[in-house]
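Handout, section 4.2: multi-component inputs.
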Amino acid sequence: MPKLRHIAIAAKDPEAMAEFYKKAFDFKEVGRPNGVLADGVFLSDGTLNLAILKFKSDQLGKGMDYTGVHHFGILVEDVEKFSQKLERLGAKHYIDQGHGGQQAGYFEKKFYGPEGVLFDIAEHGWAGAEPLPAEAEAAE
Amino acid sequence: MAKLRHLAIACKDPDAMAEFYKQAFDFKEVRRGDGPLAYGIHLSDGVIDLAILRCKTDQIGKGLDYTGMHHFGVLVEDIDATAKKLEALGAEHYMDQNENRMGAFEAKFYGPEGVLFDIAEHPWTGSAALDETKKQAAD
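Output:
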């Protein structure tokens, strides 16, 4: 089964917000993304990637001043297969995103699901996120 | 370590939205609730409780018409100790909720920039317990 492995929060000050969650819940900092879409801090609870981001574009249509939980991400076995399935179910493909360097191999596709709710799917997990159980077993 | 175990989406039609996520990702429906705060459907991926809610109050100051990501929840070992810690760090306690939660109890806080989150000691329906994580880690 696909797994929820990523939650993104839109913040004005990702640094200060990340500091709060590190102190409050002992989440670990696992990266500092600096991309076309957003800058910020990646935290991990050992299972999920919690991305605290300052966005550079209005992906939600709620304006650049929007702060709050922004989107989530689901780890799937096969991005292409799931893309087709999502489009069949009426989701709208928004954008593909890949990173080189530190996160080589990382790639995600963003979709708008029902009521315009934005989510990502990825085959290779977000920084600090646990792989799918089957992958973990296969790797052992 | 505390664990992210709950994610809530605000929407107008929870039934239709839940159906989409069930079909798309094979998430399982674990509960339907209709409480003072929201009507909603809870799905599970085996680890996280995904709550798809039609909210009855404006908890995040974005109006009752707001649709989109709403809040998240963190499972902690000791809710009272964590609540004290959160307040010491500047979070604002919003409310406690125990209605219709099958033994579970959660406290809601506003963290930095007014972002709403819950803490709970007992797992949300369909979500993994802290112990299971420890067990998985030990395996």
